[in-house]
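Milestone 3.1: sequence recovery, worked example.
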């Protein structure tokens, strides 16, 4: 069986490289051995797979069909080998991670650095920026996003729930009153965070049903930290993740409203490109984050 695979692999390598000499250089094997393997494969199959000339190498019709299936088979076998190796080997190598800046600086970085302490063969390139990066184009292994992902080109795994609340300064509540329903916010100043999926359509639970309320106000921002600062300055009500707002609740600088009317919001999600094989180092990081936030939840 191993000899059969060597013949098949030689055939695929020769065609991918564009010739026997190039394949020999790329894979450190002799040109004569590669030629023998391809000839042996053709003899075994009883059909010519390649048309060879001194200047050009091409596939016959049978060769094209065989190449399609053989290259797919070899890729699956290589991925299987890598999967087994990753399961038994210590995680190692560089992991490129993308995450929102405020989440990364306040909450995510300690979890990632804890993972690095436990896995000394791992290095991390942590990129904190408030935009949706193109994972494939920018070579990102995994992105941590606060989202309700609906992108079929990516695979998603939930890391943790993230609770969001409507927040305001006590001075703003004293001036405009404490809202008793989401509907009342239509006529009150609100801070719109354009990074939120719903932007200025905030969702609330009324009479057991989820309803959307269109809000507006004096400031539009694209950062939850900026939205929080606007709320602290008394400019309007803002929807904020609790992990950001909680220190200000404790200090009395912010109060939460309509807590019992808030539906389930977006979660912290790990997303990565759709591949059959997920590198063990990336899987290990994701597993670590899931465990980390189970014991230290994002409230």
């Amino acid at each position: 069986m191993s000899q059969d695979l060597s013949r098949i692999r030689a055939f695929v390598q020769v065609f991918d490289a564009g010739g026997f000499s190039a394949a020999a250089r790329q894979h450190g094997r002799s040109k004569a051995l590669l030629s023998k393997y391809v000839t042996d494969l053709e003899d075994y199959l009883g059909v010519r797979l390649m048309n060879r000339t001194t200047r050009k190498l091409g596939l016959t019709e049978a060769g094209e069909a065989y190449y399609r299936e053989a290259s797919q088979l070899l890729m699956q076998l290589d991925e299987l080998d890598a999967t087994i190796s990753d399961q038994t080997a210590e995680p190692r190598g560089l992991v490129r991670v993308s995450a929102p800046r405020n989440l990364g600086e306040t909450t995510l970085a300690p979890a990632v650095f804890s993972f690095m302490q436990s896995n000394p063969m791992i290095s991390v390139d942590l990129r904190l920026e408030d935009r949706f990066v193109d994972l494939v184009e920018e070579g990102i292994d995994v992105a941590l996003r606060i989202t309700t992902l609906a992108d079929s080109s990516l695979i998603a795994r939930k890391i943790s729930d993230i609770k969001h609340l409507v927040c305001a300064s006590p001075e703003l509540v004293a001036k405009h009153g404490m809202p008793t329903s989401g509907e009342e916010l239509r006529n009150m100043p609100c801070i719109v965070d354009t990074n939120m999926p719903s932007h200025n359509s905030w969702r609330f639970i009324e009479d057991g049903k989820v309803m959307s309320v269109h809000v507006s106000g004096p400031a539009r921002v694209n950062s939850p930290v900026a939205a929080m600062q606007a709320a602290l300055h008394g400019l309007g009500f803002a929807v904020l993740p609790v992990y950001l707002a909680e220190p200000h609740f404790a200090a009395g600088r912010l109060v939460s409203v309509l807590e019992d009317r808030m539906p389930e919001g977006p979660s912290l999600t790990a997303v990565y490109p759709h591949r059959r094989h997920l590198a063990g180092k990336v899987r290990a990081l994701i597993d670590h984050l899931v465990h980390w936030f189970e014991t230290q939840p994002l409230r």
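Residues 153 and 274 are 6 Å apart (CA to CA). The longest helix spans residues 61-88.
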